[in-house]
Amino acid sequence: MPTGDLAVIIPAWNEADRVGATVAAASKLPGADILVVVDDGSGDDTAAVAAAAGARVVRHARNRGKAAAMETGAEAVRLIESGAAAPGAALPGPRHLLFLDADLADSAASAGPLAEPVRAGTADMTIAIFTTRVRKGGFGIVVTTAGAGIERAIGWRPAQPLNGMRCLTRAAFDAALPLAPGWGVETGLTIDLARKGMRISEVEVPLSHRATGNDWRSQLHRLHQLADVTRALAAREPALRRLGHSEARQAAR
What we know:
This protein is α/β, with parallel strands linked by helices. It has a single domain, classed as Spore Coat Polysaccharide Biosynthesis Protein SpsA, Chain A (Alpha-Beta Complex), CATH 3.90.550.10. It is 41% helix and 16% strand. The chain has 9 helices and 7 strands, in the order βαβαβαβαβαβααβαα. It has helices at residues 19-26, 46-52, 66-84, 116-120, 141-154, 170-175, 185-195, 216-242, 245-251; strands at residues 6-12, 32-40, 56-60, 96-99, 125-130, 166-168, 200-205. A 7-stranded mixed sheet has the order 3-2-1-4-6-5-7, with helices on both faces. Helix 5 packs parallel to helix 7 (185-195).
């Protein structure tokens, strides 16, 4: 029966070559007794590889995007938690939710520090800062757009605004619902939680993932990212206009 305090959720799309190693490494994290992979409509063997590595797998029949996969994973954890309680017994407190990318491979074993401020009650959400640099094929336009937009909204700019490696309390995750669609999810999470007065900390971790290329598929991916980030920011602009900048800055502290 699960006894830990941490649930790992791994959204995955066509990651059969790396998800197995990611699951195996993440399963060793202290306190992680639930590990869910959300196969977001993959066309390869992602689901089978993840299950063979020991993950509980939930599948989307079609690709629905990262935000939807995160919401599905969190709901799967909720159902697992409720099913683990003995009949008539009170449910234990909800687990903290650690979101990891499927392509972290062996480095996922180093994600533990992300949970520490959340466990200690000093943060409602942590954002990873990768200490291992991966060569990127793009020009940083999406990162710059997200960072500048977040700073306009709340007066604070994360070092790596699009980093999806994050740990949240269940209360913080629920407070952010519905998540900003697709690749705008990280931008929306940061703004929405800061505006609700929740505490956000950045944590350096030696994680690394697959380097992004500069071919047409990679560039198309970046265009999709930019579109989703722009939509997430635009959806939050009316609130920014209602909220004075000094008030927004205070909300981020």
